[in-house]
Design goal:
Length: about 180
């Protein structure tokens, strides 16, 4: 890993005397006479892997747990997807803990490629959520036409029952990854 030098006292990193000016102050050190060392940030999937550890995923996923990883598979050529490489990091961590992960999403209410499971699966595959890339299969959570669900009673102010997609309901663990939709 290479080292990058910044002139910023707020970084909280170790500083050293600037070699160019000997600590007097020059353009290279911004007149401070000090150079601050900062290593480049780690790749985002590595950071996500560490975040999962800090969040306590090892306290949630147990040996042989079926783990649903809720993704947004997107429409074909959609650019607002969480890149598959992030889910790959989650899959890797779940497998490391002995879990049995799968990627999942539910069919849409509107008529498009994700309206039913066959088109939905093909769309997910085209967008990079394939078993050979991800290390986990993609399963449409609510079945072939979006009706495979369990009725669950809830104590809401408005809703007293909700329907949970069967593949999610039957899982031991659900990891849901949010995404920015940019909807109006």
């Amino acid at each position: 890993m290479s080292t990058v030098y910044f002139v910023d006292a707020n970084l909280g990193q170790e500083s050293r005397t600037c070699e160019e000016c000997g600590g007097v102050g020059c353009d290279r050190c911004g007149g401070t006479g000090r150079r601050y060392e900062l290593t480049p940030p780690e790749p985002l999937p590595v950071a996500l892997y560490r975040l999962l550890e800090k969040a306590g995923i090892d306290e949630v996923v147990e040996q042989d747990d079926v783990v649903a990883i809720k993704i947004h598979s997107g429409e074909h050529t959609n650019h607002r997807l969480t890149p598959p490489i992030f889910y790959e990091a989650i899959v890797k961590k779940v497998v490391e803990l002995g879990g049995r992960p799968f990627l999942t999403d539910t069919n849409t209410l509107y008529t498009h490629s994700r309206y039913e499971a066959i088109g939905h699966y093909l769309t997910a595959w085209r967008n990079g959520y394939a078993l050979f890339h991800m290390g986990a299969p993609f399963i449409v959570a609510d079945g072939l036409v979006g009706t495979d669900a369990y009725r669950v009673e809830v104590e809401g102010d408005v809703l007293k029952e909700v329907y949970v997609a069967s593949a999610i309901y039957q899982s031991d663990v659900l990891i849901s990854v949010d995404h920015t939709t940019m909807h109006p």
